[in-house]
Amino acid sequence: QGIVYPAGNCSGPPYVAAPFTIPDQSDSMLYLAFSEYFFQTSSFAYYTAGAFNITIAEEVSRTQRNTCSYFNISTEIFGSIIPEVAKYSVTPYPVMLKLMATEIPIISLEQDSFTVEIQGSMEVFAVLPDSTPQSLFTMNIAANTSIALNIFDQKLMGSLCLNR
């Protein structure tokens, strides 16, 4: 069983490794097995390092794709969905989104898939002409997603299902 530590912090994660068995098969040259503990400690390390905190804004470096401009996200778009935004922001301004995990994501292994549960929040800002971000609203997000991986025609294929 493997463990992933946050960079510069080799203290133990808040998980206990459970034993697991690998089916006894001998018809292939290579077998890979990942324990739930491996995924839990990875999730803990990424959460501790802030890897689940993402800012999406119009101003990005040349190496990144400009997501907000690509989808033309502005206060005008949010105003058509949320009337309070339209009342606050009559002039359309670019939008900046701050997405952050508020808890360590939980990864559970199942027979033919795995499930990821993540709790987070999204804060939406209007970027004013002087580049000052003005908070519009914050919303909490809870997502539970199942992911199934299969090998089809010698290719690894995945299917994603957003659970309720």
SSE blueprint and pairings:
Layout: H1 36-49, E1 54-56, H2 67-70, H3 75-81, H4 83-88, E2 95-101, E3 106-109, E4 114-127, E5 133-152, E6 155-163
Antiparallel strand pairs: 1-2, 2-4, 3-4, 4-5, 5-6
Largest sheet: 6 strands, antiparallel
Q: How many strand units?
A: 6
The radius of gyration is 21 Å
Fraction of residues in helices?
10-25%
What is the typical, i.e. mean, pLDDT? 81
Give the overall shape, derived from the CA principal axes. Answer: elongated
Order of H and E elements: HEHHHEEEEE
Which secondary-structure class do the elements indicate? Answer: alpha+beta
**Uncertain residue segments:** 60-65
- How much of the residues is beta strand, in percent? 25-35%
State the end-to-end distance.
31 Å
Description:
With 164 residues, the protein is α+β, with helices and mostly antiparallel strands. 19% of the residues lie in helices and 35% in strands. The chain has 4 helices and 6 strands. The chain has helices spanning 36-49, 67-70, 75-81, 83-88, and strands at 54-56, 95-101, 106-109, 114-127, 133-152, 155-163. Strands 1, 2, 3, 4, 5 and 6 form a 6-stranded antiparallel beta sheet that branches. A hairpin with a 4-residue loop joins strand 3 and strand 4 (114-127). The longest helix has 14 residues, at 36-49. The radius of gyration is 21 Å and the shape is elongated. The two termini are 31 Å apart. Residues 60-65 have low confidence and may be disordered.
